[in-house]
Amino acid sequence: MRQPLRWPWLDFDVDDVLTPAIAVRVDVTETKAEVPEHWHRKGQLVFALGGGVTCRVPSGLWMVPPHCGVWVPSKMEHSNIATANARIFFVYIEPGAAELPDRCCTLSISPLLRELIIELSDCAPDEPRGDRLAGMLLAELPLMPVQQLHLPISAEPRLRRIAEALADDPADRSTLAEWANRVALSESSLARLVVKETGLSFGHWRQQLHLIVAIRELASGASVQQVSGDLGYGSVTAFITMFKKALGMPPARYLSSVAQNGGSAFVA
Description:
Elements: E1 2-4, E2 21-27, E3 32-38, E4 43-50, E5 53-57, E6 60-64, E7 68-72, E8 78-82, E9 87-93, E10 105-108, H1 111-121, H2 128-140, E11 146-147, E12 150-152, H3 157-168, H4 176-182, H5 187-198, H6 202-219, H7 224-230, H8 236-247, H9 251-261
Parallel strand pairs: 1-3
Antiparallel strand pairs: 2-9, 3-8, 4-7, 4-9, 5-6, 5-8, 6-12, 7-10, 10-11
Helix pairs in contact: 1-2, 4-5, 7-8
């Protein structure tokens, strides 16, 4: 069951606050939580200190594992889904306040930037100390490496239908031919459509979704055995092999490296 994410105070509109950067901490309860699709004038960095968050934007799904952040530019429609017991920080940045990408992307978060975000979230928007912290944050954030762990999707209705169905049930092992039949296309036409819209083959596209779901669930405390089963793998070994081939290391080592290196374990 999903619950809406709650702000730490009522009647709060981030666009009414004119300071260059503000940070808001949100602690999720024992159930999954969701922010419905919306947009705001400020750009937004979604940072997870614990648990995981998945951001959905018009062009794809972006995973926010611990110690990494997803940058959502100003006025881009998006929604966020957090795992149970996640500890999340939303950093809202005035347009033009920092040299940040004009596209959605995953950013590594250094230990220094992590502490700046945490400290800024404890400051009121009009507190002088908050201005100093915001200045340091805005100088540090553009230096963070851009990482690539997302699922490209598009507005094409048939492909979006498949993406949403797989996101809801990632264990679905239907073949390309079976998906083609569901969306009234030939197998070859669907294969060409996936490549055209995402740049990936259907098999690699679905694997990317599995990686996103796997990291999200592992970050929230699920075991490798549980995740491999939830993704429909016949054995834990098969899941670990897929994970290691895609990301260069097995799941436990990967998450440990992310936590120690501020997200720099990510590969394209």
